[in-house]
Amino acid sequence: MSITVVGSVAYDAVKTPFGERERMLGGAATYFALAASFFDQVHVVGRVGDDFGDDDLSVLATRGTDVADVERVPGGKTFFWAGEYGWDLNSRETLDTQLNVFEDFRPTLSAASRDCDVLFLANIQPELQLNVLEQCRNPKFVALDSMNLWIDIARDALIDVIRRVDCVVLNDAELRQLTERPSIVGAARAVIEMGPSSVVAKLGEYGAALITAEEFFALPAFPLETVVDPTGAGDTFAGAFVGFIARQLERSEREPVLRQAMAYGTALASYSVEEFGTERVERLTAGEVDSRVEDLRRITQFEHVAVPLEIS
Ligand code: AMP
User: Does residue 308 fall inside a structural domain?
Assistant: First the structure.
């Protein structure tokens, strides 16, 4: 099995109550690939400028990720994003977004990227997501992420792509903004009516919920006392979620796979926020991932012991 991802590969300036980084490796596709590469072969489709360092390209290539479709544009500047978090880390303000080399990017995918079994359309212009989707030969599972900027300025194009994917991964505010529905379950149902069979609602420090036509499942975020930098948590979640699904694609029962994928997404995302940017996940081990998934299972399990509730 293999996974292709298209999305931003970026430099980020990030300020949180715990410190700041003026220019660190980031981008939705970067965080996704670092997580998904634990599970399967990943091919990244993206573009960087000649300001993009070889050391950063090596980070992107962690765990064998194929970066042949990451084009380096001579004289070009890498996508740049700047953001600042409030003291509780739940609110984030975007201070700057410079698409730079992504502005007019129309990639031609290599055969390896086109032949993927699973495709993730990470956060980037919907037109570019559609372009990549149309080049992939026969992906068996396609998921998509987006954000408020694209809902604001490219809504129709985004809805066109959503109609053609299996799963949409958005945060609660984005789901409300996209569907104009106040409840998350209602908003997810409205997305399912557009075509996808499942929706993952990312709820920040409250975890994530999975909504399909028949089911609802939710997990809390892993309880951490200190969160240093939430940047990329959503993309890291998506990388592990989609990576796990790719590994289990042959299993016929979809529902348990989606639930287990939620647990891996939650575990990986929790590591990501422990340090700035990609720092923690770069040196994460498979054993650490497993032990956090097991801890998560333990803290989310309970027994239903029926007691008489009416006192006579
Ligand atoms: P997350 O915290 O999961 O929302 O992802 C943060 C990453 O998304 C950062 O590393 C940014 O470089 C990237 N990003 C921010 N804005 C955009 C955008 N408009 N399009 C694509 N990627 C973006």
Answer: no
Residue 310 lies in a domain: no
Query: Would you say residue 199 lies in a domain?
Result: yes
Half-sphere exposure of 78 (CA within 13 A, CB side): 26
Q: Is 305 a domain residue?
A: no
The proportion of the chain whose per-residue pLDDT surpasses 90, expressed as a percent, equals 93
Task: Report the CATH number at residue 106.
Answer: 3.40.1190.20
CA of 94 to the centre of ligand 1 (A): 9
Q: Which atom of ligand 1 is nearest to the CA of 236?
A: 3
Ligand 1 neighbours by CB, cut-off 6 Å? 8, 10, 12, 26-28, 81, 97, 123-124, 147, 149, 231-235
Count other C-beta atoms under 10 Å from residue 193's C-beta. Answer: 10
Angle at 171 between CA 247 and CA 18, to 5 degrees: 95
Using a cut of 0.90, tell me whether the model's pTM lies above it: yes
